């Protein structure tokens, strides 16, 4: 592959760099050193053993979900070759046992794959967030921790905006703009390795004969390698593949949405459109495309100006009450 474009970065980043312009922006940004003063980062820079001891000192005994597979998975949680299932399994264990398991394979040349993904920090590590945090204003963030060994996570998107901090180890982020969907050869929407649809292309060994348009995706891809203490801002809907490059890696991330929670995830609308619109005759689909443009994608004040405010119903401004009204309407229709 050709050398990829580096992600724009700020060196020596501080909380002052977390401006509203940045956090509502549509371009990724690396924030070098943003979490460098975290006590956990300092522990991990001493050794992986110190990092594990730090986590064990805060652990409250709650079990965590571990993804695991043998060395043959190559550290990549993905589908089986025939798509009959996934190439890894799950189990619940104590976090301290998981950390010991990672340590026992730390020196393996080809270790098994072990990964604790997207675990809410407050559920198992009370106090960690108070000791290690970044200021994100009044945003209602989900704070998660990810722990594992050398891993290769396929390109996927998140609905939320994201600031991810490498707290121990080293990670590589490869990002693709949202408009690269057709060039990423995305897998199933309802059968996924971890909840979000993923690119079927092996980033490190792309089969261009099978996925020729992936060359176009690589032409606009951006990449960065982050050390412990570095962070990255990934805007909503940007595709990102993440590689854990050390024998022990810890990531802490903050997710938030720029829309009220009562609006619900937009992918619900996609599922409904697949159910009700995708397989209509072509001429009817064009009509519905015009309707969606009119009411959703190109709506303006003029869209409903001819209707008195009190009579606009679900066409009025989206509020908690309006969202409840729409959900009730949908549930009634789907339950027929």
TrEMBL record:
Alphabetical list of Gene3D superfamilies matching this protein: Cupin
UniProt xrefs under InterPro entries: Cupin_8, JmjC_dom
Superkingdom of origin organism: Bacteria
Name of protein: Cupin-like domain-containing protein
Organism: Kordiimonas lacus
A Pfam match: Cupin_8
Annotated PANTHER family: HYPOXIA-INDUCIBLE FACTOR 1 ALPHA INHIBITOR-RELATED, HYPOXIA-INDUCIBLE FACTOR 1-ALPHA INHIBITOR
Domain JmjC span(s) in chain numbering: 99-271
